[in-house]
Amino acid sequence: MQPRPHIRHAEGRRRGPVPRRAVAVLTSVGLGGALLAGLPAAASAEPAQAAAPADAAAAQPAPENLAALVNPFVGTESEGNAYPGATVPFGMVQPSPDNTNSYASTSYSFDARRTWGFSQRHVNSAGCPAAGELLVTPTTTPQPVTARQFIPITGEESAEAGYYSVGLGNQVTAELTASERTAVHRYTFPATQTANLSFNLGQTLRDAGASSYAWTDARTLEGWIDNSGFCGGGAMQRYFFSLELDRDPTSRGGWSGSATYEADRAQGEVAGGQNGAAVVLDTREDATLEVSIGVSFVDVEGARANREAEVPAGTTFDVVRDAARERWNEALGRIAVTASPQEQRVFYTQLYKTLLSPTIGSDVDGRYRGMDGEVHTADGWTYHQTFSLWDTYRTQATLHALIEPERAQDVVRSMYRHRVEGGWLPRWSLGNVETNIMAGDPVSAWLAENFTLGTVPEDIHDELWDFLVENATTAPPEGVASVGRQSAEFYLENGHIPFYPETQPGLGQQFEEYRHGGSSSMEFAISDAAIGAAAQRMGEDETAREFLRRGQSWQRLWNPDVELTGGFRGMVNAVRPDGTFVTTPEISPVQQTGFHEAVPWQYQWMAGQDVAGLQRAMGGTEAFLDRLDTYVNLPALQSSPGARPSSWDPGGSRYYQSRGFNPGNEPTIMNPWLYSAAGEPEHVNDVLAAAMNLYPDSPGGGVGNDDLGTLSAWYVMAAIGVQPVVPGSGMMALNAPACRRPWSPSVTTPGI
Questions:
Q1: CB count, 10 Å around CB of 188?
Q2: Is 189:350 a contact under the CB 8 Å cutoff?
Q3: What residues does 722 pair with on adjacent strands?
Q4: Which has fewest Cβ within 10 Å: 48, 213, 225, 426?
């Protein structure tokens, strides 16, 4: 190996002291305090203060109305899959416009400038379409529309946290806001005798199944909709609704089984296909109509109770909007930053996005539908659901534990109920259905982090720990929806998951795990290390030794014979059932076979739990740093600070096609902090300066979809200067806050 080439370091140093502005060290964090390893004691006494920026006059404290800083349109272009509509933190409902349901844009595309109408539930920035129930469409046509019909957006479209407004081409202005379980719409029509509002039950953002509705009086419509799963996984789920108009319509009716509107139809039920209801109003004297729509996963009575409790009769749209703004200001106010107005908009938009998921699943009376399909009650706590764990264990789990510790306890308790009621811990659940998408064992890492951070309720602590160890040691029994670690026996005996090609017959539910045998093995090792680290902190020494040993099993994938360009040698490879590597020419380090959403050249760094072992495998610290420099393209980062190198640009799909460091997808987002572990923490900020520039205050951007708050949590933690290193360890990496512009963050929460 050639000597490590000279790379420009801060103030010309190749090694030695790190400048204060570029500090990046390790810290051990627990609820109630922080122990900063390697820093003077005074460093933890008050919020980090950045040097005064050149444009210090532009920097200002965070305003009181933080909700107004949020730009919900961020991520609604370029495969971001965000929705711009209204919600409250972790709300059950998210009323928002819909104009597409493709995999590239799951509900709404900003540049389309049109809409079908406004449905009540959306999933935050995911990779597949979901939800989109009860599409509400305002028109002024002679009769209400009975199917999707595009309405052009010709007026102003605006949004902030908890509020959305748009001017439509039919001269209708639509506004949306929400409480936790109730969507509230306000429509302002032109003066007409045919102001119509249609409620479409038969079309969702996925494949709607059976549906039913009934007008219970002149103003109230109630019913249910069956909607399909997510990314090809999961069964149908039933959603119940109860809506109320704020005034009597001129007439009301519906359609059922066909697209023919019947003015006197009072109810309709179909096994699938066209179904819906509508009202007609005279708006020549009163132009507005307000509609409140309660939602429940339990029954119509629950939806009605949610609506009546949160938006009682006579409650106006503006009252609900003001309450939503107040909720957001409280949640966003957990972190205060002094920065320029634009930097504040970027920061609080990302903080907003990571507080959208997981979502509330229980009604106001505590009832919820469990993973067994039965109704249960959350007594004194709030049930949450929809867990994108392959994504969120890396960043969001930690952030929520620190700034929302009480909610984090409710989410932990909800996962415990998954095991009690559904028979196994979740992988990727949507509502009360397990989809089993993605690979690895993310719930183990997620729960281990919460055990360490102290957000596991005491009354379930020991039993949940047993469930966690069970989940990581054995396969689920037959008849359980979750696949868990179905290859547990093979993994424990051989130290890896066998790779089978997609054409291998008979894989069944193990398909994801086996066809991604390489990345699944890496993920299992991370989860094992997380359990081991948490066990160590809990004094479970025997468990700690076993799982920390298993945390090094990634080494079974290391093939020392792979020769790479640049003089590097060795690479992680998927391993066949017979123990042989899947290697060149069958596969190269920049081909995805055997790995999930990334390639071996990217997955080689996913061993943060064993950096010393990774350095040895790569030939020592110098060789490790040389390879890392090449991977992130450090020379380009230093020659053009803040600019994304061309080697990062994935082209096409932002998270599937990248072959270098990819700040837009989960497998690589923790890579920058490897510099800290190798003794060159100053380069963390070289990478972050470019990566954080991909988060603009605009609908587009370079990071792709946020995966229910994962990448936004990454941004927030990088911006305030702390990032989790290994789940369950309690270790954090520190970096200089505000890599793009010096600012001063402070966190006001019982979690830090």
A1: 17
A2: no
A3: 734
A4: 48
In 378-447, beta strands by DSSP E? 384-385, 387-388, 428-430, 433-434
Is residue 602 within 8 A of residue 669, CB to CB? The reply is: no
Q: How far apart are the C-alpha atoms of 170 and 176, rounded to whole Å?
A: 18
- As given in the structure block, the two tokens for residue 283 are 């708006």
What type of residue is 585? P
Q: Which sequence spans correspond to the domains of the chain?
A: 79-326
- Could you tell me which residue, 490 or 16, shows the higher pLDDT? 490
Amino acid identity, residue 608? G
Q: What is the 3-state secondary structure (H, E, C) of 571-620?
A: EECCECCCCCECCCCCCCCCCCCCCCCCCHHHHCCCCHHHHHHHHHHHCC
Nearest to 263 by CA among 170, 146, 147: 146
Alpha helices in 3-115 (DSSP H): none
Please report which confidence band the pLDDT of residue 637 belongs to, taking 50, 70 and 90 as the band edges: very high
Q: Do the Cβ atoms of 36 and 732 come closer than 8 Å?
A: no
Question: How many other C-beta atoms can be found within 10 angstroms of the C-beta atom of residue 449?
Answer: 26
Query: Thinking of the domain 79-326, which architecture would CATH place it in?
Result: Distorted Sandwich (2.70)
State the pTM of this model: 0.91
Average pLDDT over residues 624-644: 94
DSSP symbol at 371: T
Closest CA to 173 of 253, 68, 105, 97: 97
CA quadruple 700, 703, 704, 710: dihedral sign: negative
Q: Which helix (H) or strand (E) segment is 186 a member of?
A: strand 182-188
Considering only 157-166, 337-346, 611-620, which range has the smallest mean pLDDT? 337-346
Model confidence at 437, in pLDDT bands (50, 70, 90)?
confident
Question: Tokens 């081909």, residue?
Answer: 591
Q: Which sign does the torsion angle of CA 511, 515, 531, 676 carry?
A: negative
* Burial of 579 (C-beta count, 10 Å sphere; 0-12/13-18/19+): exposed
Task: Of 86, 190, 181, 183, give the one whose Cα is nearest residue 138.
Answer: 190
> C-alpha dihedral over 157, 158, 162, 168, to 10 degrees?
-20
Please report the DSSP string for 311-330 in residue order: S-TT--HHHHHHHHHHHHHH
ω into 358 cis (within 30 of 0): yes
Q: Report CA-CA distances (Å) from 542 to 269, 300, 443, 546, 593.
A: 58, 50, 21, 6, 36
- Between 680 and 25, the more confident residue is 680
Q: Which two tokens stand for residue 52?
A: 């005064």
For residue range 617-626, list pLDDT tens digits in order.
Answer: 999 999 999 9
| pLDDT of 504 above 70 | no
Residues 6+ apart with CB under 8 A from 625: 4, 675, 678, 680
Give exposure, 529-554, as e/b (b: 16+ Cβ within 10 Å): bbbbbbbbbeebeebbebbbebbbbb
What is the DSSP-derived secondary structure letter of residue 54?
T
